[in-house]
Amino acid sequence: QQAKLPNVTILATGGTIAGTGATSTTTVGYTAATVGVQALIQAVPEITRVANVSGEQVFQIASENMSNEHWLTLAKRINVLLGQANVDGIVITHGTDTLEETAYFLNLVVKSKKPVVLVGSMRPSTALSADGPINLYNAVQLAGSQEAVGRGVLVAMNDQINGARDVTKSNTTTTDTFKASELGMLGYIQGGKPYFYRTATRRHTVETEFDVMNLSVLPQVEVAYAHANVGPVAIDALVASGARGLVHAGVGNGSLPAKVRPALSAARKKGVIIVRSARVGQGIVARNGEANDDELDFVAGDNLSPQKARILLMLALTKTSSTKEIQRMFSTY
Length: 333
Ligand SMILES: NC(=O)C[C@H](N)C(=O)O
Known about the structure:
14 strands, Rossmann fold
């Protein structure tokens, strides 16, 4: 242990960053989540010069298999670690498919100002020009930096820093996939130093009202996707399966197709909370815009993607079932 260096814990969860392929040119069709955390650290000995690093294997999964239960386990472990004086920051290695969702969940339930940085890779560890090692090196430096304190959960990939709320995977395979849509990234990591230009304005971490430390399950919230010719089948099935909340990934500005509106309205009358969002990927779904939310007693999803609206609605339902209160939360987080 070097006294001057920050203490960073790496929590490994799997993903392509821990993946292996048959050959150095295998960049699709590889196996995710095979390399353990100690091997990940040993592959980048440079990080031991910038931080005192320790590793824990929390799970070993491809992130398409990430579940609410995994999130609760991860959040609880992070809160315990960050409560210790000998931990300055945390890096989570993670598959990229649901990385943005884990990041937003943690952004709402981590109770510390210390840096929490998610990192993954688009190429497996065995590939030519694998992006995992440099991403991990940058993430550790960011998690150990003073600059990252109090900024909420961050994503460090491709030399760029993004905030958990706004970042999304935007390309199926390229290494520059993580973007904050039209809102832009927060900064860069260059030469081992973070450069921040912007900061997230929505409340996060220590400023939220959510606490998962005593929870073992989250309320069931599902997403129903709209498209031309859509009918009520999926919505009715999701409600019948016991959903307490439904996020409607509407077309355009969160519009409700005529065959969908009665099914959503009936679900609301049964007590299911309905959030109107959009499948478009950019822009705001505002209250009483393309639908009369006051009359339907629905919640407008602001600019959250459907998958992130699901997370906020789950956490909201741990506190309240009032649409007014939930609408306030969607304007706050
Ligand atoms: N690039 C990746 O990490 C993709 C992988 N399917 C995962 O999310 O685990």
